[in-house]
Design brief:
The chain has about 325 residues and is mostly helical. It contains 13 helices and two strands.
Length: about 325
């Protein structure tokens, strides 16, 4: 029996596979090029700059002179108390914002779960802070909190009896009922919660749409009250979405820059890690130091996320 037809079939299949692979590479090449230029090359440059002594004035000489490799950028960063203050502030800011935005979004999603007249309008209004341009949102808050003509200080002096106006955006610490609180930091946390809670609300509302009402009705017929239905039936089904939102929210707020910079420019104890990188790069014109701060920031974030992933996996395995 001749094997020529079988051989020809295999050759056609091989040529077709090679053509498909080539077409696939051609289709993915633009995406890979964008990732290469926008992510991979900048990351490699940050690593190179972090291990070298280089300032902005040295940029024109790059490639013409040998690079002096050093660990001094990391040593100065770790020995600098401002680095640890910025790291602590960033962790506190990220944690409070994560808890607040997910918590507020969860409360709103549960509160608007039952249908009522005008629910669509209320849901649409809740999304306004999220879709509002950042510069417009910052301007609104700065106007409201202005010590001279802001509505918050006016209300405090006229109604609450404040002795003097409060600089909400430049006060590191203030006493509330005898307890010192980081006032400006809490203000930027509240601003971030206000702008990001609608996203959590959307995610949780979408997940609640998939919760079968028949399960809750059956539990109610068996004698379960509303709190029992909420904690034993509804919340377990939201657990995955809540964990995902907490993870994403922490990552995003750990890298926050625009919101805090536009509101306070780092004043009042709001110097985050991202603002520290900006200060090293723009104010001190030290590319090497800024790259080292950025790399340390990434290392801290990766370490925290690794702990989170392992803890979550262990919890899932035990269940």
């Amino acid at each position: 029996m001749s094997t020529a037809p079988l051989r020809n079939r295999r050759e056609r299949h091989t040529r077709r596979s090679r053509r498909d692979d080539r077409n696939g590479l051609l289709l993915t090449a633009p995406t890979f090029l964008v990732i290469l230029l926008a992510s991979i090359i900048p990351l490699l440059l940050v690593i190179v700059f972090a291990f070298s002594e280089i300032r902005l004035v040295d940029i024109p000489r790059l490639g013409t002179e040998p690079i002096d490799w050093t660990l001094d950028n990391f040593r100065r960063a770790i020995e600098n108390p401002s680095f640890w203050r910025a790291l602590g502030t960033t962790l506190l800011y990220s944690t409070l914002t994560m808890i607040g935005s997910v918590g507020v979004g969860l409360v709103l999603a549960l509160a608007l779960r039952s249908p009522f007249r005008g629910r669509g309008i209320v849901r649409a209004l809740l999304l306004v802070p999220y879709v509002l341009p950042l510069i417009a949102a910052v301007t609104i808050w700065q106007t409201m909190l202005n010590p001279q003509y802001g509505i918050v200080n006016a209300f405090g002096r006229e109604v609450l009896g404040w002795d003097q106006a409060i600089g909400f955006l430049n006060t590191s610490s203030a006493e509330v009922f005898g307890v010192p609180v980081p006032l400006s930091l809490l203000v930027v946390v509240a601003f971030e919660i206000w702008t990001s809670a609608p996203l959590a609300f959307l995610f949780l509302t979408a997940r609640l749409q998939g919760v079968s009402p028949s399960i809750e009705e059956a539990a109610a017929l068996d004698g379960a009250n509303r709190m029992q239905i909420l904690w034993r039936i509804v919340m377990p089904q939201l657990k995955g979405v809540i964990l995902l939102l907490c993870l994403l929210r922490f990552i995003w707020t750990f890298q926050s820059f625009s919101e805090v910079y536009l509101l306070t420019e780092g004043a009042g104890g709001t110097q985050l890690m991202a603002l520290k990188v900006y200060t090293e790069l723009v104010t001190r014109a030290d590319i090497g130091s800024a790259s080292a701060y950025g790399l340390l920031m990434s290392v801290v974030l990766i370490a925290l996320l690794t702990v989170y992933v392992f803890a979550t996996r262990r919890k899932v395995d035990t269940e």
